[in-house]
Design brief:
The complex is a heterodimer. In chain A, 0% of the residues lie in helices and 49% in strands. Chain A is mostly beta strands. Chain B is globular, with a radius of gyration of 13 Å. The chains are: A mainly beta, B mainly beta.
């Protein structure tokens, strides 16, 4: 069974530029999560989808972050414009059940200079 | 605000010693999950506890969910160098599906 795929693995951009991350969850997993993990901290949930509907996005900075999950499979997370404090690892995870065990992708390490 | 704290933040042990990390939530959790993250890696699911007072074992690891469903613990017996990493608890607050991760405990095992 293939795991959660994410791309790119690394990205370096200058502040005020835009960036997009892509995630392909495990086949059949209806729930998809995007987390931000700053070095030395636990993952922080940004947005959670159930199929193509949003379950929670209360911690998503909506003035600069956006996410979509068209057709309830792949998802993209976008930052526009990026700030220095957005430097972090962006993790995508998926689960079969809404409150079930989560499988994480390798993450995208973003550096904003 | 609502948060999930873990203690200790760091723990260094000699190989063979036991290790325990504690997870405390300000609000009751529907369930508790534990993840392990190796340095440079991503979180890997270990176990999920759902019932109040539930105890589960996985070889040298023992997991417990508190009676009030606000705290949990992970105990490792006779640590090995392969146990190195950061251990996170996580769960949704009761009545929501919003996942909150704990602050994590970083374990270092000295050979």
């Amino acid at each position: 069974e293939a795991g959660v795929a994410q791309s790119p693995r690394y990205k370096i951009i200058e502040k005020r530029q835009s960036v997009a991350f892509w995630c392909n969850p495990i086949s059949g997993h209806a729930t998809l999560y995007w987390y931000q993990q700053i070095l030395g901290q636990g993952p922080k949930l940004l947005i959670q989808f159930q199929n193509n509907g949003v379950v929670d996005d209360s911690q998503l900075p909506k003035d600069r972050f956006s996410a979509e999950r068209l057709k309830g499979v792949d998802s993209t997370l976008k930052i526009q414009p990026a700030k220095l404090e957005d430097s972090a690892v962006y993790l995508c995870a998926s689960s079969f059940l809404l409150a079930g065990e989560q499988y994480f992708g390798p993450g995208t390490r973003l550096t904003v200079t | 605000g609502q948060q999930v704290m873990q203690i200790p933040q760091y723990q260094h042990v000699q190989e063979g010693e036991d290790f325990t990390t504690y997870c405390n939530s300000s609000t009751t959790l529907s369930n508790i999950q534990w993840y392990k993250q190796r340095p440079g890696g991503h979180p890997v699911f270990l176990i999920q506890l759902v019932k109040s007072g539930e105890v589960k074992k996985q070889k040298r690891l023992t997991f417990q969910f508190g009676e009030a469903k606000k705290n949990s613990s992970l105990h490792i017996t006779a640590t090995q160098t392969t146990d190195v990493g950061t251990y996170f608890c996580a769960g949704p607050y009761t009545g929501t599906y919003k996942y909150i991760f704990g602050t994590g405990t970083r374990l270092k095992v000295l050979a």
